[in-house]
Write the structure tokens for this entry.
Amino acid sequence: MPVITLYWDELEKMVGKSREEILSKLPMLGCDIERVSDEQIDVEFFPNRPDLYSVEGVARALRGFLDVELGYKHYEVKKADWKIFVDESVLGVRPRIVGCVVRNLKIDDEVIRSLMEVQEDLHWTIGRNRRKMAIGVHDLSKVNFPLCYKGVDKNFSFVPLDFDEVMSVGEILTRHPKGKEYGFILEGKDRFPMIVDSKNEAISFPPIINAEKTRVTEKTTDLFIDVTGFDENVDKALNIISTMLADRGGVLESVEIKYPSKVIQTPDLKAKEMEIDRNEVYALLGFKLTDEEIKKALERMRFGVEIGKIIKVKIPPYRADIMHEWDVIEDIAIGYGYEKIEPEYPPTNTIGSTHPWNEVRDLVKEIMIGLGFMEVITFTLTNERVQYEYLNRKAEGYTEVMHPLTTDHTIVRTDVLPKLLELLSYNKHHLLPQKIFEVGDVVVNDLNRLRVAACITHSKANFNEIRSVVQAFMGELDLKWDVNESDDNAFIEGRRADVIVNGKKIGVFGEIHPEVLEKFELAMPVAAFEVDLTEIFDCGELL
Amino acid sequence: MLSPFEVKLIKSLEIGKEYSVDESAKVSELSKDAVLKAAYLLEQKGFCEVKEVVTKKYHLTDEGLRYLKEGLPEERLIELLKTMDDLSEIEKEMGKKELGIALGWLRKKKAIEVKDGEIKLIKDVEFKEKEALNLISQGVFDISKDVLKNLIKRKLVEEEEEKEIIIKVLKKPDVELKEVITDLTPEILLSGDWREKEFLKYDITIPSKDVFTAKIHPYERIIRECRKIFLEMGFVEIKGNYIQTSFWNFDALFQPQDHPARDMQDTFYLDKYSELDEDLIEKVRQTHENGWITGSTGWGGRWDVNKAKQLVLRTHTTAITIHYLAKNPNPPVKAFCIDRVYRREAIDATHLPEFDQLEGVVLDKDVGFKHLLGLLREFFFKMGFEDVRFRPGYFPYTEPSVEPEVYVEGLGWVELGGAGVFRKEVVEPFGIKGKVLAWGLGIGRLAMLKLGMKDLRRLYLPDIGWLREFPAIKR
């Protein structure tokens, strides 16, 4: 989630309240404050509120939340003659484009920084790393309208931003840092999206890079903004940027987009309307509010409100998160103040119960602790080396993860015993004897099974000792059991046994083979057992 | 406290009487070594006095022994004088040397007169010497000092010094004297001897050698505590497989298919796919694409069933919760799950690729957001956090959403998990009737607060020393 840096001077000026007031109320608007210093405050806003990724957006929200300026804020868009023609050739590649002209801005470092930050944050969040949506910002005076948005081949050339040489699309994708970073979005395409001006010169190669010639400088006063992509996220992004710049004092002018089949004017900053049912408010929040309270709460959150038989709400154009009536109701709760809601324990009356899986776990723990073993917990993520190779075992029924982060964690364990041996190898410096056990999940053929495994290590740990433990353990479970000669090569031949219940192997025990001990760099004998509890217990339903 | 030897000794000696070691050994039936040891211990405790006494002993020389047998020379001379008076005759009889001795002694005692070769007895003499020799030979030294001195002078008796230890009991302990028991043995129990004896009192302040408690992992204690709270509040425990379809892990929870959380950056995907329920697929597809009948706009775009079929290591236990609610859509339902979840994250002190998560849901008709807050407050209160506050939060599948915070001494307000009411887009495709209040938190966070841990890796790769030292109850 994006962390926004807000400078106190700027924020205080824009909100019209002191930093103390701002600091005390900001968390209740919905954000996590990361750091506070004398100059600045770093705030993490939630991904559903991209309109708060700029100081302008935060100030606008805070002016409402702190009762400086309530209700819906109207944004005027002057009708103008800026035009973009959308060519058929781009529709299969990156079909949507919207634009806006912003005039009379005082562009200083602050504005440029804020603009670049919000652009990056929007790219990352609603743009899904530029895949769904990408924004280009240009110096209007360098752009010769009308523009054309079309698909070009990879030989189309221009001077990309931050370069002083003409490069082809193909070169940009292989050589330009942004081309290398975002080229994957256009992988496999033979046409590439390009915005060209009336001289057929590129101004932007979305979603990769702008042309150098439209670079925004401190002398820039008027901006042209393009947003390209696939769906309504382009409108959301444009609305957020254009309202933010309007809050900075910019005058917005519309851009006409001529598609082959339709013509639209952007940005569309008209409010969407939504009807809210009072009863739904009461039901979702669990308590009644007066109409006045609802109105005040919504206005604090910068909604327009008309209270009648039904509550009519005007949704600001920069709000990208309102999908459902409940989204507005949440804002009523926030505007009302979470701290003012009186919590009440729900009246829902049900009988509690444990899951059989954990009942078995608890029972087994009790027995093992009674036998003097200490409980340990280990990761279920492991690797083939530790699980099988080290134990001289065959790899079977395991689950491999895609794109593991480290070679240590490539699979989910099918056995607990290797994890215990691994654990002993990390604890060689502690006093002996060491007796440890774990009762926990393994995953065999993609399904969880419950296992218990235990290890004893000291200078005289042997088969007899672990057999006594298995005898006691199986005795506590009141099970008829038997042993078979085992062929598990983790153990020494002639000192290893399979545990048999109802003719089926449910576990194994014995003295760990010196070869195995060597691999784990263990210098003391280890006697161990592992039993599959799922085989002998009803462990209940797993979803 | 007296040892068995001390008791035996002090019991057998009389107060005020002096005993030699030999005597003491005899009456106490102890060895001389034991007597000495016990006597010194008793002396330290003020029960007796032990002193070294030097005594004189005498024995006869060879000459003395002969005189004892034959009589002293002067005695013999007097006997002879009764029948003879000629000196030369007597000398023949006694020998020159002895006659000389006898004459010397008798002259000194003025008992004889020697004149012209004749000896004349002038008075009778009493001889105590022989009797003295006789007594000394019997070990009796109660003899007059003059006599003894004479005998020594005459080299008939030799003197020797002997050092001796004398034990004298000054007082006896007030309590009845019993023998003490050091190790209580089956023999002592069987014989009932312990009734007459006391137990040796040990120095209880000396630490003994370490033994280690077999016990549950401290982390499991927290999990148990959480389970107990849920059960007390009437929740049903549920459990699911670690491997889930993306459908239950993401799609059922209205997570858009292009959501960053679904990236392979953050999730462990498996190269495996599983079939899904056709009816559910259709409802979820429509909800994602256009909101279906939920009143939502949906996410737009196309929902890809193949993405939903791909298996993942579940990223949260909510995958299990929603599946359970889909199977139990009728209120009231209260369920909880505490189990392992996976995130594709590099390991460090506060991030683990797998950890345990706790989650609870309430499904009911007439409950709302304030009831969720009530639940949270109660839950955290039971967890020992008395101050709870609520801040707006964001989770893709809840609306409203809330981030509860608890007040921790020394840390201030600490965010502890998240909560919210399941969105309609989540509940309606599964015909879940009512509102679902849900909350969850990572137990690692709880462990850090409750166990005072700074490094979560320690939980899943425990140091045995740490486990041994970690108390069953941490205060």
User: Anything to note?
Assistant: Chain A touches chain B through 95 residues (CB under 8 Å). Chain A has four domains: 3-65, 77-266, 272-340, 356-535. The first helix of chain A runs from residue 8 to 15. The longest strand of chain A covers residues 434-444.
